From TrEMBL:
Keyword Kinase attached: yes
Organism placement in taxonomy: Bacteria, Pseudomonadati, Pseudomonadota, Alphaproteobacteria, Hyphomicrobiales
The keyword Transferase is assigned to this record: yes
Source species of the chain: Rhizobium gallicum bv. gallicum R602sp
Positions of the Four-carbon acid sugar kinase nucleotide binding domain: 256-413
Name of the protein described by the UniProt record: 3-oxo-tetronate kinase
Enzyme Commission code: 2.7.1.217
Length: 429
């Protein structure tokens, strides 16, 4: 194993898997902390998907340390901690505490914090995170249901989460390339800094930063940082050149979209599907809470739809609607009830022979995957930046597209299916 990664949510993990496999690494996604003696086959990279972004910091640290320990024991040469490209976290964590714990596990050496993903519009300049052309705090992430982001200055944000000194390598240094970046690492380390936010404006910057991280025991960031890391192993003849996949075999069966993301991109995708005459049903959380809507009824509705129409169940709400739901029911309580309901719908549909699932939302995907009993995923073709098709390797034979809330083009829900073999296939990849 060349790279062992711990991701703080499931869509983040598939995003990272896609990046690593696009760069030629045979990549396996494992759901949850691997079991003792787990067999990772001949994977060049293993990404462990946790659901640790919004749980209490001590639990996130415990799970991340356990997962990282398994990857290091299996021979991982470099450890990667994957979090969101929009740095989703609270002042209590969990990025800082987990990075600290993994740094301890890997000998306490200097590490970086590189959330940038320019292909998805996330860049960092003077330590400030931009989403498209807006500062993070002025983007739709300020209204995230679980981790509203109000401060765009990542040095400040991260410093609130860790006692270790946080530094910054700004863009003029990054633009001078690998050697300059490496020299800046050494200078900052000598100045007592332990974790460095790195400015990044382009894929070229990511390649240069990745090259400078050759040999760094622990790297932290979004999937973008994985763009430049595989080349370090290829240079040493540890990694062959592989072609990216463009289509995927999928088991015979019906399809469904389940959206528990309230992100701006997902809400647009829902409207595009509505205008295309897909069959839409809203999960009304107040109705679920008072018993007038249930997972069983929602699943029956999906099953009863004409097979030629795409069925889409969504709980997604506008920031204003969300505010009043959360005021009435509580932020975590309402979120958990939505997740639990969509997870039960998925489980019921699986029982009825549905094999093709498109799930929108990271936390939502985590809940659905757990309910479906999926343990490992192989990575298929890219639908849009950050979102591949995946196929379950053990347990139920199904394909899944796990879409991060803010990823994907407006027609994502409609176009994703074109990459699956319409006839179906009984053989797993
Ligand atoms: N109508 C709603 N009311 C309250 N919470 C909701 C509603 N719809 C979705 N949620 C919750 O919002 C959270 C969205 O997070 P997530 O699934 O990670 O989406 P994203 O990828 O957009 O961040 C989930 O916990 C989900 O259950
Ligand atoms: O880095 C990213 O933006 C994604 O990989 C990711 O982690 C997004 O999280 P969700 O929006 O909660 O799916």
């Amino acid at each position: 194993m060349l790279i062992g990664a711990v991701a703080d949510d499931i869509t983040g993990a598939t995003d990272l898997c896609l990046m690593l496999s696009r760069e030629g690494m045979k990549t396996l996604q494992v759901i949850g902390v691997p079991e003792e003696g787990a067999d990772f086959g001949d994977a060049d990279a293993v990404v462990v998907a946790l659901k640790s972004r919004t749980i209490p910091a001590e639990e996130a640290v415990r799970a991340s340390r356990a997962a990282a320990g398994k990857l290091l024991a299996a021979g991982a040469e470099q450890l990667l901690f994957k979090y969101c490209s929009t740095f989703d976290s609270t002042d209590d964590g969990n990025i800082g505490p987990v990075a600290d714990a993994l740094q301890d596990l890997t000998g306490g050496e200097l590490t970086i914090a590189c959330p940038s993903f320019p292909a998805a519009g996330r860049t960092v300049y003077k330590g400030h995170l931009f989403v498209g052309d807006r500062l993070l705090s002025e983007s739709s992430l300020k209204d995230h249901p679980l981790t509203p982001m109000h401060d765009p200055d990542l040095v400040r944000v991260l410093q609130r989460q860790t006692r270790r000194p946080v530094g910054l390598i700004d863009w003029p240094v990054i633009a001078r390339g690998e050697d300059a970046i490496r020299a800046a690492f050494a200078q900052q380390q000598a100045a007592g800094k332990r974790i460095l936010v790195v400015d990044t404006l382009s894929d070229a910057d990511l390649h240069a930063i990745g090259a400078a991280c050759d040999g760094m025991k622990l790297v932290t960031g979004g999937s973008g940082i994985a763009m430049g890391l595989p080349e370090n192993f290829r240079k040493r003849n540890k990694l062959p050149v592989r072609k990216a996949m463009t289509r995927m075999m999928a088991p015979v069966g019906r399809r469904v979209v389940l959206a528990g993301s309230c992100s701006a991109a997902t809400r647009v995708q829902i409207e595009v599907a509505r205008n295309d005459a897909s069959a839409l049903l809203r999960l009304d959380i107040s109705a679920v809470a008072d018993g007038s809507q249930s997972a069983a009824e929602i699943a029956d509705w999906v099953i009863s739809q004409d097979k030629d129409r795409l069925p889409l169940v969504y709980s997604s709400a506008s920031p204003q609607e969300l505010q009043s739901i959360q005021a009435a029911m509580g932020r975590h309580e309402s979120g958990a009830l939505v997740e639990q309901t969509l997870a039960e719908v998925a489980e019921r549909l699986k029982q009825k022979g549905f094999t093709r699932f498109l799930i929108a939302g990271g936390e939502t995907s985590g809940a659905v995957i757990n309910a479906l009993g999926v343990k490992t995923l192989s990575i298929g073709p890219e639908i849009d930046p950050g979102v591949p098709w995946t196929r379950s390797l053990s347990g139920p034979d199904i394909v899944l597209a796990l879409k991060s809330g803010n990823f994907g083009a407006p027609d994502f829900f409609l176009k994703a299916w074109a990459q699956l073999d319409p006839e179906g296939s009984d053989a797993r990849d």
